[in-house]
Write a structure and sequence with these properties.
The chain is mainly α. The chain has 6 helices and 2 strands. The protein has helices at 3-8, 11-28, 40-54, 60-76, 83-104, 119-129, and strands spanning 31-33, 36-38.
Length: 131
């Protein structure tokens, strides 16, 4: 059996590999859009700013813990991480780039929705990945 048929037989592994490839690109060369290069640090800052605004009523301690949890998830994710963790990482990356594209778009489209994760869900993902 060749490598391609092995890879195609496991959709979960394909998804994990796809997410990890996006992360590697963001960590190394970044992803360009309209002559601007976006790297992982910028994407995380953008997402954290959006989450900070969404949960501003929760208090600074909760926001600080959320930032730590998000950073831990991104630092420790791997292709063997749980599907929920990989999905979170992928959703954050996709949200950020959809929002960036929206800002440059001249077309009338709905503004991209922030991925629907609660602070508790993010904390649970961070706990599960650091075990």
């Amino acid at each position: 059996m060749d490598q391609e048929s092995i890879d195609n037989s496991n959709p979960k592994q394909q998804y994990a590999d796809n997410v990890m490839e996006k992360l590697i690109i963001l960590l190394t060369t970044g992803r360009s859009y309209r002559r601007q290069v976006y790297k992982l640090e910028g994407i995380l800052l953008f997402y954290i700013d959006q989450m900070r605004a969404k949960f501003s009523n929760m208090g600074e301690k909760y926001i600080t813990n959320m930032i730590i949890d998000v950073e831990n998830i991104f630092k420790n994710v791997s292709s063997t991480s749980q599907y929920d963790t990989l999905e979170f990482v992928n959703n954050v990356i996709e949200y950020c780039f959809k929002t960036i594209a929206y800002k440059y778009s001249k077309k009338e489209k709905p503004y991209p929705q922030l991925p629907d994760y609660t602070l508790a869900e993010i904390k649970d993902l961070a706990k599960s990945i650091s075990k």
